[in-house]
Amino acid sequence: RKEVEQxxxxxxxxEGATVAFNCTYSNSASQSFFWYRQDCRKEPKLLMxxxxxxxxxxxxxxxxxxxxxxxxxxxxxxxxxxxATYLCVVNxxxxxxxxxxxxxxxxxxx
Amino acid sequence: GAVVSQxxxxxxxxxxxxxxxECRSLDFQATTMFWYRQFPKQSLMLMATSNEGSxxxxxQGVEKDKFLINHASLTLSTLTVxxxxxxDSSFYICSARDTDSNQPQHFGDGTRLSIL
Lengths: 110, 116
Prior knowledge:
The complex is a heterodimer. Chain A is an all-beta fold. Helix content of chain A is 0%, strand content 57%. In chain A, strands 2, 4, 5, 9, 10 and 11 form a six-stranded mixed beta sheet that branches. In chain A, strand 4 and strand 5 (44-50) form a beta hairpin. Chain B has strands at residues 4-7, 10-13, 19-25, 32-38, 45-51, 57-58, 67-73, 76-81, 90-97, 106-107, 111-115. Chain B has no helices and eleven strands. The mean pLDDT of chain B is 91. By secondary structure, chain B is an all-beta fold. At the A-B interface, strand 4, strand 5 and strand 9 of A face strand 5, strand 9 and strand 10 of B.
């Protein structure tokens, strides 16, 4: 079992749809959490950090449930430009290890 | 936001050539930098973790004599692919993180390496 697991995807949604991505992590010592997006043939870019209290940035909402070791990303009112691969990323406590999920591909169609 | 500069962005060279890639953190001090490789339609694969002033830590299966990493300052790490062969062709991406391990990594633009 991978340390960080994501929905396999791909997700194909129409413009304006709401889409949710799930991610689970197995190492209870994980201490910080992030969502990145990666466009084809480009580097990953930080989308948002994820906090226990939940946080929102425009159309994007991230949630963290430490008890269940579960992270989510909700995208509302999807745009064509949201099409990308979304990576769930976890930093382990006490060291320099960062674990990347395999990513979930999103296609938003007109 | 934090900026990481990677150079060059594209390299095409003959088999047997050694290629050096630079990664710079422009507006913060990065005690830790990471080097990744990504093949088409595959996930990022961590190659090594580079700590300023000490030897890099390589992931299993990554040859340290093939992929030389130097992290001589808090703003610069270099990856040298020695005697590159066609199978080394890939997208190489560096990232850097601030001293606080709670912070996210910030990625360079990546280097697309093609060995003929």
